[in-house]
Design goal:
Layout lengths: L4 H16 L6 H10 L2 H9 L1 H36 L12 E2 L6 E7 L4 H17 L3 E7 L8 H12 L3 H13 L1 H7 L1 H10 L4 H7 L4 H15 L4 E2 L1 E4 L2 E4 L4 H12 L14 E2 L1
Parallel strand pairs: 2-3
Antiparallel strand pairs: 1-3, 2-5, 4-7, 5-6
Helix pairs in contact: 1-2, 1-4, 3-4, 6-7, 6-11, 7-9, 8-9
Length: about 280
């Protein structure tokens, strides 16, 4: 998290007060004093630069933690609201999924094949599937970001392979996330090689990749993600309740258990990580 200039100024003033010791003046008094004589700050730094920056860094961390705690509280409130009024993504019959159609919980992911946080999210979804089995149905949707040039072609490969079988498409999905560096470095050659490993009929695949309807589905996913306020990847909707970012497994568990009527341990949400547009 970047600290803005005004926060830096306040942190710097507070650090001077702490550094100089004694009964600290108000921030207003400090501000006026430094405006009148900026050398106060320079003198404090020169006296013991290591100590000065140690104090500034500690104050920065405290400010960041406060912001994260505030954000977590806001997201918990939004989550409670979504339990009452769940989001309603479209799920077509032709949509490729893993797990029973009548599973008690449906987990939808909006993802980018080239996003490193989505690779982390892939591992977390695997944990969810291992933990809950047939209780969870998983659906992969697309949100390729502009600055990931291999993400959109990989999304097209996935949807083209869905036409052969969901199993082949998800095998391709797994292999891409498990070898994401190869996707970035080798591009199209890697996608073709991975499609073969996943058992694709390559002639049919090449033909289906030319169908503009693939892009229609991907565009629809992107528009739906935007409607739900996802502007980075990964994003998840769990029976209508959103998670925004590469949260660890316990955060998924809290939501899923609540849907299943299982008492879950309470705890503050951990910082999210996403790739953003």
């Amino acid at each position: 998290m970047k600290t803005n200039s005004s926060l830096k100024a306040i942190v710097g003033l507070a650090a001077v007060a702490l550094f100089m010791g004694g009964c600290a003046p108000s921030s207003d008094q400090l501000k006026k004093a430094v405006e009148k004589d900026p050398s106060i700050v320079f003198a404090a730094i020169e006296k013991d630069p290591e100590k000065f920056f140690e104090i500034v860094t500690a104050a920065q961390r405290k400010a960041q933690q406060g912001q994260q705690d505030k954000q977590a509280k806001e997201e918990e409130g939004k989550r409670d609201e979504e339990f009452k009024n769940p989001l309603k993504p479209v799920i077509e019959e032709s949509r490729a999924s893993q797990g029973p159609v009548d599973a008690k919980v449906t987990l939808i992911e909006y993802s980018d094949f080239e996003c490193p946080f989505c690779s982390r999210g892939y591992q977390t979804v695997k944990e969810v599937q291992k933990e809950y089995g047939a209780k969870v149905r998983f659906i992969f949707k697309h949100l390729p970001l502009d600055f990931h040039p291999k993400a959109l072609p990989a999304a097209k490969y996935f949807e083209a392979m869905v036409r052969q079988s969901p199993e082949k498409a998800y095998k391709f999905h797994d292999l891409v996330f498990e070898n994401q560096n190869d996707l970035r470095s080798k591009g199209e050659a890697f996608m073709k090689e991975t499609a073969k490993k996943a058992g694709a009929d390559m002639k049919k695949l090449e033909k289906d990749l030319q169908d503009p309807k693939l892009m229609e589905r991907i565009t629809a996913d992107m528009e739906e993600a935007k409607k739900f306020g996802f502007n980075g990847t990964p994003g998840y909707i769990i029976n209508g309740v959103s998670l925004r970012g590469a949260y660890p497994f316990p955060e998924f568990k809290k939501i899923i258990d609540r849907h299943l009527g299982v008492t879950a341990d309470a705890g503050a949400a951990k910082p999210k990580e996403t790739d953003k547009k």
